[in-house]
Predict the 3D structure of the following.
Amino acid sequence: MNAAHILLVEDDAQIRRFVRMALQDAGYRITEADGVKRGLIDATTRQPDLVIVDLGLPDGDGKRLITEVRGWSDLPILVLSARDQEREKVAALDAGADDYLTKPFGMDELLARLRALLRRYEVKTPDGIVRFGDVEVDIVRHEVRKRGEPVHLTPIEYRLLAALMRAKGAVLTYRQLLLEVWGPGHAERTHYLRVHMANLRQKLEDDPARPRYLITELQVGYRLMGL
Amino acid sequence: MNTAGDDVRPDPDRLLAVVQAEEAQRRRGRLKIFFGACPGVGKTYAMLQALHERRREGVAVLVGVVETHGRKETEALLEDLPRLPRKAVEYRGRTLPEFDLDAALASSASLIAVDELAHTNVPGSRHAKRWQDVEELLDAGFDVYTTLNVQHLESLHDVVAAITGVRVRETIPDRVFDRADEVTLIDLPAEDLIQRLHAGKVYMPETAQTAIERFFRPGNLIALRELALRRVADRVDVQMREYRAREAIETVWPTRERILVGIGHPGDESLVRFAARLATRIEAEWIVVYVDRIGARTAKEERERTMAILSQARRLGAEVTTLAGDDVARALIAHARQRNANRVVLGWRPRSAWLRLWRSPTTERVSRLAPDIELLVVGLPTRGRAARRVLTEDAGRTRHPYLWAALACAATTLVAWPLSRIFDLSNIIMLFLLTVVLVSLRWGRRAGALAALLGVLCFDYFFVPPRWSFAVSDTEYLLTFVLMLTVALIIGQLTARLRLAVIAMRQREQRSALLTRLSTALSGALTAERIVEIAVQTLEAYFEAKVSLALADANGRITGRTGGSAQVDVSVAQWVHDHGEMAGACTGTLSAATGCYLPLKAPMRVRGVLVVEPAATAPWELPEDLAALEACAGQIAVAIERVHFVDVARDTLVQMEGERLRNTLLLTLSHDLRTPLAGILGAAEVAVQRSGGGELAEFLQRIVVQARDMQRLLDNLLQLAKLQSGATRIDKQWHSLEEIIGSALRHVEAAQGSHRLQLQLPPELPLIEVDGLLLERALVNLLDNAFKHTSADTNVELRARLEGSEVIIDVADNGPGFPVEEPRILFEAFRRGSPESTVPGMGLGLALVERIVNLHGGKIDVRQKQPHGTIVTLRLPKGTLPPEGAV
């Protein structure tokens, strides 16, 4: 059986219990850990496909675990925390987490995020073309088509789109995006980003106000969905 | 490198000065002066005509005060203009009509006509002169039209007096004239004027008939007319130079000149006027210096005259300094060097050859000691007898100095009488000289001189043979007498000067000791009350006067909270505080007040007012005392400001600590409430999955829904608590409204159900500067409300548009609307439209939205939609995008 193996690092036994039940119902294999130390041991020895981690753990901050894991692996990490402040989210994402979910959360939402993160590794681009919805991106020729019609993107818009595609559905913080597209020295100019993202949505989304692919995580960053 | 291009560039400092001046001008009202050579040329008439014209243009005009002197044409012009009633001012039992400044300031007019700028107000008015009233009007932003004759200009006062032989008392400082925005010369040839005079169209007081005749001679009129024309031309010249400064026409700017003027004699008023004219002509700064000679105590009247000259110089725009020094010439030169003044102006009077031998005049000494300084010597008439330097005697001890001098001589004679048998007469002379020295030391110069004279007479009468007679047997004694008298006089004068030098020194020392004492005492004070106490105590003891301090509160109002025993007129104190200038008995402003009011000027702002009420004699009228008082006021002000900032720092610290505490509390609360809620929600969801349908599944589903409602409520509650406690500051950034709306829509997807949602977002919406999360929360709440409070299938619209500098967002539904009586109630926390509604939500939503919109400086508005439904409108300022935002 090749069901995905998920490591859940969470100190609240109640939450651990129902998350385990829900995930088992959905067909995943679960390993539970109740602290940073235990989590790190399990992450190295049990070889999970994905880690769910709480930030406020009894023996340390979950961000430490994220940083350590990122030291040797790029396996997907989802943060599950009661901390709802945006700067906490940004800090966790900058540390290397791929997504962030605030408690209390809906189980459907959690399962949807897990599916998206796990699918990243299945996304293959044998013909050099990335597709989301009715948009096709030829990553060799830097060409973008929507419903078969060519769409002209400025170089910056293309670099932005490429960065989001490379993240494969993970949230990229403003800082990460600015660094990747403009390079160092522009980390404070988030309004650049907003203008270019708005243009990108105008060109690629059917209804820019209700985007289906280029999703805004307010005060945190952006992600590309539908890959 | 200094290329030719650099040379023509305007000097930045100069340009800045021009810009600042323009800035100040814009805030100030504009002053237009109708300027004439003499009375009767028709200035008032021209002014009223101009007023009519402006009124036809739609300007709100007001006649503040106009003298028609019974002229029919003028009165006719005045008839249909709005006029300000005169204020009746009581003065010496008579009621005089006077310009009502306060009513003018309170009026809604934008242009006010005030006739006769040089008018002197009735004593007891706020300002001594009408031009000061006009200045206040201009400062308050009113435009003013006024009239002026050339002889009222302070700098031309002498010249006009010399031409016409009529001296006017009412003058205005030239800078008022020079600063006027517009000057219109009302010109009338002399012959026409004389005709008008004969036709009775020119008003002059009837009592001075001869003066009129003298004044209105054709020669005079021509001269006056030329004077007026030239003065206006000077003004044009200055304006042109300013224009050139702005447009960088001149290639090389000369360094600014500085003129130093030395005064110290009566009649130096003319010298000051000459210097004022010179300074204006060559555009120089000028400094008027009075050297107070150590040891030379001057008579009170002379000192007052000097003070009057200094204050006249200050009015004319000079910087005024009093120096202390033994040698006038050296003190002047040192100051000139220090201030980089390249010209020195001094007066010259004919003096007798004897005096020239005794001491060469200052002019000569200056030119000898500093040949490099350009010396301008202005010839001045010796007006009557030049006032002599007179001793000021110490009032208490010297009631009868001459009597004491006489008694001293008598006593010396009695003592010398028996001695003369033993000693030689030359020793007796020494005895008399000693007496002169002692008398001079104790009773001053004049008593010393008398003692010298009496001493010689006594010596002659009682000791020189033949005794008991003024006759002298040996002619050699005549020489003895002359020498004795001369030596006695010289010694006496020197001794007296020494005494006065000591007195002067002691006073200076006392003043500096006062300042030291005050600053030491103040540095230890920790509260404003203590500062007031210390200041009052110290100053009262030193100045022998009643002293009070009136402090201003945070809004700059002088409150009743004062300390000290002097009476404080709150309105005068307020004026002094607002203008930052001295007023009261010791100045020309509000001089009817009993005390002297000094502003406590600290670096940040005026902190209050120091009030000093003199005892019967007024020792602080001396310039040094006034200066010392000002210095004290400065120290007190700084001390008060220091205490104020200590308080501010402490309050800030307490506030920061409280904020940190609240923040921690809210974070903990948020975490502790969320975790169990997550447990409930998650467990219920899993349970729904596993229950396999049926009634139980329905119950469990209810738990899930309720828990989600609870979560939303919790979010709103915590957010509101954070905003209200001031625990969070809003984090404004440049956001695209589309993103915020998109994000909000994702949050309400579940609540939307089968409601229809229409969006109207123009693609050209700009970025707006908001806290994205808060605005998102506001939109989520509005949409949530729209979905919750209406039945399914209702239409909900979300529209955004740009209107001027505001972004307007409407959330509208065509549901049942809200109970209409009081839309404001909807915004109050914990209140809902209908109190017992079954729809969940505590009514927190709108309260939070309002709070968020207010924090952004926006407005929220709820109204009924026709035929039914609700429209909520948010208006947010869009802000100005920083320049690098132009992508």
Summary: The CA atoms of residues 248 and 336 of chain B lie 31 Å apart. The interface with chain A takes residues 667, 670-671, 674-675, 677-683, 685-686, 689-690, 707-708, 711, 715, 731, 733-736, 738-743, 745-746, 759, 761, 763, 767, 772-773, 776, 881, 884-885, 887 of chain B (CB under 8 Å).
